[in-house]
C-alpha cells in the first residue's frame, strides 16, 4: 500500500480537514494569515492529522469532532515547525524557503504563537478534558524535547538513550498524542487507548530515525531540505552516535570534531564513515523494530481498511526516501 492508497481511504475526511484548517487560519491581521497559510500549504504530508482520521475510522467513529481534532494536531505541528526553523536558522523546508527566510524571525515566532493559540481555542470546542490533558501535556513534552536537543548541540558525548529521549519528545510525542487523543475522543476501550498511544509513539520514533538516516544518505531535492543539515548544526544523531561507538579511534575523533565544530567541511568524510561503520544500516534496523512494535499494537482493533492503512503507514515510515 502506497501513501496515495492510504489517502484514498480517508479522502472525504481529509478534504474536510483541509477546508477546516484554512477556515481557522482567518485573522484580522493580514500578515498572520499570509504566513500561516504559507507554511500550512507548503506541501507537507500531514501524517499527524491523517493518524487522527485513520484512528477514528478504525474505531468506527469518524465524525466532526475527529475532524476538528485533526486540524488541532496540524496547527500544533505547524507551530512547532515555525519555531524550529527559527531555532535551527533553517532556510529550506519541503523544498521551499522557510517562513523565517521570507519574512524574518520575529513574524515567524509570533505566527507560531498564533497557531498554538488557535489550536487551543479549537481544543476547547471539543469539550473533552481528557483530550485537552493529552494535548496540553504533549505540548510541554515537545517543548522540553526541543530544549533538550538544543542543550545537546555540539556535544559528542550523548548516549543512544539520551538521543532517544530527545526524539521521543520532539517528534514521537505528537504522533502519540494524535492517536491517543483520537482513541479517547472515540471512547475506545482502555486497552485500545493504550495500544493506540503506543502505536503513535513507535511510529513517531520510526519516522525520526529514518529522517536522521536520510540526513546522511538522502537527496536534497527529494528531501526538500539540505543534506547534512544535522551535521551543520552539530546535532549528534544516531548514525553518528553508532559510528563513534563502533568505529576506529581515528574515525571517532573525526566525528567528534565535526560535531563540536558544526558546519559541512567534513560532510563527505562523515558520510563515508557512517557507511563504513554500518551506522546507516543500524539506524534502519532500529527504525524497523519501532515500526514492527507499532504494527503489533493494532491487534486489538477490528478488521478494517483504516486498520490496514495504519499498518501500511508503519511500513512506509521505514521504506520512504524523503
Automatic annotation (TrEMBL):
EC number from the UniProt entry: 2.5.1.90
Keyword Translocase attached: no
Any Pfam family matching the protein: polyprenyl_synt
Keyword presence, ATP-binding: no
GO BP term (any one): isoprenoid biosynthetic process
Cofactor dependence: Mg(2+)
Class of this enzyme: transferase
InterPro entries according to UniProt: Isoprenoid_synthase_dom_sf, Polyprenyl_synt, Polyprenyl_synt_CS
A GO term for molecular function: metal ion binding
Reaction catalyzed: 5 isopentenyl diphosphate + (2E,6E)-farnesyl diphosphate = all-trans-octaprenyl diphosphate + 5 diphosphate
Keywords tagged on the record: Magnesium, Metal-binding, Transferase
Similarity remark: Belongs to the FPP/GGPP synthase family.
PANTHER family named in the record: ALL TRANS-POLYPRENYL-DIPHOSPHATE SYNTHASE PDSS1, GERANYLGERANYL PYROPHOSPHATE SYNTHASE
Function: Supplies octaprenyl diphosphate, the precursor for the side chain of the isoprenoid quinones ubiquinone and menaquinone.
Protein name: Octaprenyl diphosphate synthase
Amino acid at each position: 500500500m502506497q501513501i496515495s492508497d492510504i489517502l484514498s481511504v480517508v479522502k472525504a475526511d481529509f478534504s474536510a480537514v483541509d477546508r477546516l484548517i484554512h477556515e481557522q487560519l482567518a485573522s484580522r491581521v493580514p500578515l498572520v494569515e499570509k504566513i500561516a497559510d504559507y507554511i500550512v500549504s507548503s506541501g507537507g504530508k500531514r501524517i499527524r492529522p491523517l493518524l487522527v482520521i485513520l484512528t477514528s475510522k478504525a474505531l468506527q467513529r469518524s465524525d466532526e469532532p475527529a475532524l476538528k481534532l485533526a486540524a488541532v494536531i496540524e496547527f500544533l505541528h505547524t507551530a512547532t515547525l515555525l519555531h524550529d526553523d527559527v531555532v535551527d536558522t533553517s532556510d529550506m523546508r519541503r523544498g521551499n524557503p522557510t517562513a523565517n527566510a521570507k519574512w524574518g524571525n520575529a513574524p515567524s515566532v509570533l505566527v507560531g504563537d498564533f497557531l498554538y493559540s488557535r489550536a487551543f481555542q479549537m481544543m476547547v470546542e471539543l469539550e473533552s478534558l481528557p483530550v485537552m490533558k493529552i494535548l496540553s501535556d504533549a505540548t510541554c513534552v515537545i517543548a522540553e524535547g526541543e530544549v533538550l536537543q538544543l542543550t545537546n548541540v555540539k556535544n559528542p558525548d550523548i548516549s543512544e538513550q539520551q538521543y532517544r529521549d530527545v526524539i521521543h519528545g520532539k517528534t514521537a510525542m505528537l504522533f502519540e498524542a494524535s492517536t491517543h487523543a483520537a482513541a479517547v475522543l472515540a471512547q475506545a476501550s482502555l486497552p485500545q487507548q493504550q495500544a493506540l498511544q503506543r502505536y503513535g509513539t513507535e511510529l513517531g520514533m520510526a519516522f525520526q530515525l529514518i529522517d536522521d538516516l536520510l540526513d546522511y544518505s538522502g537527496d536534497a531535492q527529494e528531501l526538500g531540505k539540505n543534506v547534512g543539515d544535522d551535521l551543520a548544526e552539530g546535532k549528534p544523531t544516531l548514525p553518528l552516535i553508532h559510528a563513534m561507538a563502533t568505529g576506529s579511534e581515528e574515525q571517532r575523533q573525526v566525528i567528534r570534531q565535526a560535531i563540536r565544530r558544526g558546519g559541512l567541511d567534513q560532510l563527505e568524510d562523515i558520510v563515508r564513515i557512517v557507511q563504513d561503520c554500518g551506522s546507516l544500516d543500524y539506524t534502519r534496523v532500529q527504525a524497523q523494530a519501532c515500526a514492527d512494535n507499532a504494527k503489533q499494537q493494532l491487534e486489538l482493533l477490528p478488521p478494517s481498511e483504516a486498520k490496514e492503512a495504519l499498518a501500511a503507514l508503519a511500513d512506509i515510515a521505514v521504506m520512504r526516501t524523503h
